Amino acid sequence: MKLAVFAHCAIDTITINNQNYEQIGGSACYCGITARQFKFDVDLFTKFGPDFPKQYLTENKINFINSESEKKTTKFTISVNGSDRTLTLQNECDPIDFTSVDADGHIVSPIYHEISDDTLKKIKSDSNFLLIDPQGFMRNKDSQNNIILENINLDLSNVNAIKVNPEEARHIVNGTNDEMMLALQKKGIEYILFTNKTDVSLLVKDRIYSITLPNKQIHDTTGIGDIFCSAFCCAMLKEKDFLWALCFAGGAAQAALESKNVGLQKIPRKGIIQTNASYFYNLLKFRDL
Predict the structure, then answer these.
(1) 196-205 pLDDT, tens per residue?
(2) What is the number of domains present in the chain?
(3) Residue 268: strand, helix, or coil
(4) Does this model's pTM top 0.90?
(5) Which range of residues forms the domain containing residue 31?
């Protein structure tokens, strides 16, 4: 099976407990390498500069086409404090061009302005199953280049799944958590993934399914949402079971957090994800709206 990922690669300087780690990352890398753990072929649509070690993608058998730019790679400094992060934009690469691809599913997960409305429209018309993580659409920068979120009017028609946290959802729709999930559903999205720190919910039709990740000490949260999205998408495409996909995504996020690793090193193996997923499957809760 094949997954197409539209997102920028990045070079991140992650600061945890006053210690700096320079890592390659971006949702392109996190989503793509996670999908490779599940033996998916990955076509990556991205842009990176001459400063990016593209051999890392080649070594992980990730396909990339027309991805090289004369501009330097998008770069962030990321300060991690528990489950909270402060991002500062250091560099922005070129936007991503649309390319049609015959894939089982698509993930659109921009990190900063790399996907235009027109490109998104073309991706939607080309996709069989599309999951969007919209955070990069709503990101902007203040006078110190710190990342802030702004309200957006995003066309979410023909989108199958979306992953948001409460803060991101408030920049698209209004209301309580339940009301925001319903408002997103009314835009035509079938699967609403709502992550609120350790509480993970999925709205399908008129029912919310939920799991709770064990509240253990958190080290580096960078890329956890991307690992979650890729695991959910791969499980949905393979198994066609949204409850297993929810547990699988939660299992991937939990395994990544428990690894205590930084950056891409935290991407977990398939076996530990499946063990966690089985655990969560037996603890699933649900309620009707």
Answers:
(1) 989 999 999 9
(2) 1
(3) coil
(4) yes
(5) 2-288
